[in-house]
Design goal:
224 residues, mainly alpha, two-stranded antiparallel ribbon, 2 strands
């Protein structure tokens, strides 16, 4: 639930990020990706538990390489489903907000024009006029703004689907997991799996922000 709150906040912040972009700022897209991975794509503990239990038939709490790959695929499927459901809800909310803004724009415009065109003309406050103009601008730009934000909430679905499709990188992650936290038999516990997987989402903004050039040996770019 917490990650979805952060994701909704990040969706709103996307508009501000676009307005602060300067020509030649090549890292803005990368920073945005890092923020989206961190804020919008983390799995919940319940998702991890569901994916793990689906392949830990004996309830041993330890799994080998093949089962870990299956858990990872299942977990990403659960994340994609949740991200898709969240995107649908946000898009519906955006549509409601757009409709409400258009109604408010019409009402505010009518109120201002009725006042200035009355006989005798009535005084209109600066705030009322400014609000009417701002809402009129928003009414025109509403579809564009909604489209930008709708595209932003689709990023988790597309990104996680790509993550699952790249089986070679998933295998590399499982191999790293076994090498770092596996026991002498090459088995990994659920807690260790969860911690390692969560660290990817926590680390994404840092590795994308710090690693300006691809590196296999640099300390800052090494997956821990």
């Amino acid at each position: 639930q917490g990650s979805r709150v952060h994701c909704r906040r990040a969706t709103g912040d996307a508009m501000g990020s676009a307005s602060s972009y300067t020509d030649g700022d090549k890292t803005s897209l990368v920073r945005g990706l890092g923020a989206s991975i961190h804020d919008c794509m983390k799995p919940t503990q319940a998702q991890v538990a569901e994916a793990w239990s689906a392949h830990d038939d004996r309830g041993a709490g330890l799994l080998g390489r093949r089962e870990l790959l299956a858990v990872l695929a299942k977990l990403i499927d659960l994340q994609v489903t949740a991200a898709r459901d969240d995107a649908v809800r946000i898009k519906m909310d955006m549509a409601r907000q757009q409709a409400r803004m258009e109604r408010e724009a019409r009402a505010q415009r009518t109120e201002v024009l009725n006042a200035v065109q009355a006989t005798p003309p009535q005084t209109v406050s600066r705030d009322s006029l400014d609000r009417a103009v701002a809402l009129a601008m928003g009414s025109g730009a509403g579809p564009v703004m909604a489209g930008i934000m709708a595209g932003y909430v689709d990023i988790p679905v597309t990104s996680l689907s790509k993550m699952k499709a790249d089986t070679e990188l998933l295998e590399a992650r499982v191999d790293l997991l076994i090498r770092n936290v596996g026991n002498t038999e090459g088995l990994v516990s659920q807690d260790a799996f969860c911690t390692h997987y969560m660290e990817f989402f926590e680390n994404a903004p840092r590795v994308l922000g710090d690693c300006n050039q691809p590196s296999l040996g640099g300390k800052d770019c090494t997956v821990q």
